[in-house]
Amino acid sequence: MAVKVEELLTADINQPARYLGNELGSTHKPWDGALVRWVLTYPEVYEVGASNLGHIILYNILNAGPRQLCDRAYLPAPDLAAKLRSTKTPLFAVESRRSLTEFDILGFSLSYELGATNILEMLDLAGIPLTWQERATNPQNGQMPLIFAGGQTATSNPEPYADFFDFIALGDGEELLPEIGLILAEGKTNNLSREALLLDLAQIPGVYVPQFYDMAADGSVHPNRPQVPERILRRVATPIPAYSIGLVPYVQTVHDRLTVEIRRGCTRGCRFCQPGMLTRPARDVEPQQVVEAIEQGMQATGHSEFSLLSLSCSDYLALPAVGMEIKNRLKDKNISLSLPSQRVDRFDDNIADILGGTRQGGLTFAPEAGTQRMRDIVNKGLTNEELLRGVKTAVDRGWDKIKLYFMIGLPGETDEDVVGIAETVRWLHRECRIDGRRGLNFNLTISNFTPKPHTPFQWHSVSTAEFSRKQKLLKEEFRGMRGVKVNYTDVRISAMEDFVGRGDRRLGAVVRRAWELGAGMDAWWESLDQAYKAWTQAIDESGLTWKYRQVESGEWNLFEKEEEHDTDADTDTRMNLTAEAGTGAPPLLDQPLPWDHLDTGIDKNWLKIDLQKALEAATVPDCSFEGCSRCGVCGTDFGHNVVVDALPIPEFAGEFVPNTERKQRLRVWFGKVGDMALVGHLDLIRLFDRVVRRADLPISFTGGFHPNPRISLANALPLGVTSTGEIADFELTESIDIESFREKLGAKLPENIPIYKVESIDLKAPSANQLLEAAEYVITVASAGSLTENGELDHENSAPVSVAPDANWEAWVKTIVETEAFWRVHTTKSGKTQDVNLRDRLHKLELVEQKPHSSTRARSGTSEGRAVLRFTGSCRSDGNLLKPEHIVFMLEQVSQQEIQLLQVERSQLILGYG
User: Fold this and answer.
1) 711-724 residues labelled b (16+ CB within 10 A) or e (exposed)
2) Are the C-beta atoms of 100 and 41 separated by less than 8 Å?
3) Contacts of 244 (CB under 8 A, 6+ apart)
4) Cα-trace Rg, the chain
């Protein structure tokens, strides 16, 4: 039987604060005031989903719309998923805590080929049939929400997942989703059927409704009714930085910072890069919008780090000027800037200037290939000289750790090209050595190239057997090379990405069966062997083993082997792209593809032409800065490149210098009540740091390379425990009125962290942590029957006490108080054991209230039921602690009953001033 969500969110699950739904930036709109109710459902754990920029932007945009409500849901961790299933409680949206079936529409982000199994897991947990066909025949069809997907993989090739969704949103969602919301509102008002509503949605450019299209025998897709377009247009929108300011999670997320997009789209033309093809044209954001969004966002969120996001940040020509302007404005805030992987050929002193600071982060470059020939084939636009100059600049500016990305298995690659990766790293090591300094360290990621739809290499076929051979070749080359750490992508993951990513609708059954066999995304990292076994079994059962074998051994290669080339110097290099004689099939490049019905703007003929240029190792310039490449994107439907010119770089105002002055110390007594009990101690420390920033309080910093705010909590409160007696010390660089401090701090704290008292403390006085002597707790406990009957008697730690047969809570408490010793074996962090007398740590124990349970037996002398106890015990920073669990232990010794700890509240921390 389903239970309330609150009963599931307890301290026994990992990171319960993931599911609270009341983070800063969350929106709680009145349910009854909304006509259309959305859930943006991110099919990853909260730490990934809540920091995804697209998720945050669309959530903010939808909630800004009138009569539109948007909630959120994430893939629950295995512990919560098990609870949901065992209690038959459906998956819920985190803010309203309503079942997902109560909403009108669920939108999933599908940005990775193997991510669909997580979507099926979420649908199953929500009690929603997995396919549109099952939902159409379900008796509750009218009450089922519409299920759609968006994201890079959904836009690239949705066919393997077509059966699972009512529609697909292609391209950018900032304008598309509000348009969908208007149609849904009109459909609800007019009481349209599900099919009629989907037919209306199909008229919106960017909406693809798979059930209105059929797959032909050759894998191509065509409309099955005249009311829908033959090809569906990808949507393009202009980035709006203001919508990036949003969620500030309690828990530490994957990207725990403010992220603002500075450029959408990339026109570099790397032939392996799907995002670069699917996001054209390039659109630069106005520098003033970027600066204002970051300045306002850092104040609103309290983050200590921000990131500028683009597929190629270095191609945003205003980057040095924008970065320096922001750095100057936030000079006194101890804030750092991070950039994703950037073009090494554009990395110079100007960019190094904006990245430097007290917290210098890592640098990531992506040469992709180890030889000039291979970089030309993939149109990387990078020379050896540019690579060396960029890395040398980084070393000269103080970086000693650099991350490099390379790929193997690219079209036309030879063993010399593979070995060239190791030779390039060895060369960089040699050329960038500086006498008297620690050597340069490289962290390499060697990934396996998998061809992607809508790229010039979409016709290429990889061979996992070749991947394995080339990885072995590289491992030999890197053996013994110092200062290099190499990570290799598992070949099996790459094989599945390729198999699914370029598949057709037949793969829907494979994806579903793989999920049934346990191949969730988490399984790839926790048990890769198990996940791979599930996928291969699913493929075998589907009868598509022959297709997967082509991935293992390589079906065809776009490049002829060198020895097969015509020796005539005048003969052009040609590709093996003709059909096999006698088959009647069209040449390879003319065969229909499962994604041909999607209009991404890229001309398929241009892809063929660019592929031929790759065979000739001919490069194509970046059309944002040089001539048009005729790819087909620019025009009425998709717009044109928008490029902001480089701007004058402001004069550098200097690095952040931590203000270590200590003019005032304030001691704050505060509470941690309600659901804030589910926020862990480290997360609470991070919360206070952000609150102080948002309140703009003059906090003092520690010195050194990593200055931290001088905020000190007296004692860590266990997860799940409420408190009305916590203490924190704040040291300030200037004196401030106590009431003003209390007002500013309280205004930025969550409502379930109330402030009770603030006092000024002498700067020379010991900290609260040093003065801490004891803590008072109020606990609720219950007797669950005889320890002997339950097999729970702890003979090793049992105390030599006896209790009368007719004992009750009052007698048990009295016995504990009068007993001199309760010995228990304590194991230290170092693994040593010692005998501890818990009674020495107990200062006071009293029975506050006795609550007989409704099932209490009337027999005289029994003590079943609940009791509220108050105790005071040691709570010192040297580890001399008396925990609520220790009181339970003593109760069990005197009662010989199993005692359950139901609720804990810390009512005060007691400081020893004498």
Assistant:
1) bbbbbebebbbbbb
2) yes
3) 53, 56, 57, 258, 259, 260, 261, 293, 297
4) 32
645, amino acid identity:
D
What gap in Å lies between CA 203 and CA 180, rounded to an integer? Answer: 10
Q: What is the DSSP string of 353-390?
A: HHH-STT---EEEEEE-SSHHHHHHTT----HHHHHHH
- Amino acid letter, residue 510: V
Question: Alpha-carbon distance 257 to 48, whole Å?
Answer: 12
Backbone angles phi, psi at 334, to 5 degrees: 55, 55
- SS3 state at 899: strand
Whether residue 570 has pLDDT greater than 50 = no
Q: In one letter, which amino acid is 48?
A: V
Identify the burial level of 731 via C-beta atoms within 10 angstroms of its C-beta, where 0-12 means exposed, 13-18 middle and 19 or more buried: buried
Count of helices and strands (H, E) across the chain: 29, 29
Q: Mean pLDDT for the chain?
A: 90
Distance CA 139, CA 146 (A): 15
pTM of this prediction exceeds 0.90: yes
Q: In 3D, which of 693, 559, 703, 538 has the Cα closest to residue 617?
A: 559
**What dihedral do alpha carbons 547, 550, 556, 561 form, nearest 10°?**
-170
436: pLDDT confidence band, cut at 50, 70 and 90?
confident
Residue 189 has pLDDT above 60, yes or no: yes
Which residue carries 């770089």 as its tokens? 649
CA distance 184 to 200: 9
Contact 392, 429 (CB under 8 A): no
In the structure, what pLDDT confidence band is assigned to residue 521 with cuts at 50, 70 and 90?
low
> Partners of 759 in the beta sheet?
667
Q: How far is the C-alpha of 30 from the C-alpha of 106, rounded, in Å?
A: 18
pLDDT band at 556 (very low <50, low <70, confident <90, very high): low
The answer to whether residues 40 and 10 touch, using CB atoms and an 8 Å cutoff, is no
The predicted model gives 99-104 an average pLDDT of 97
What's the maximum distance between 2 C-alpha atoms anywhere in the chain?
A: 108
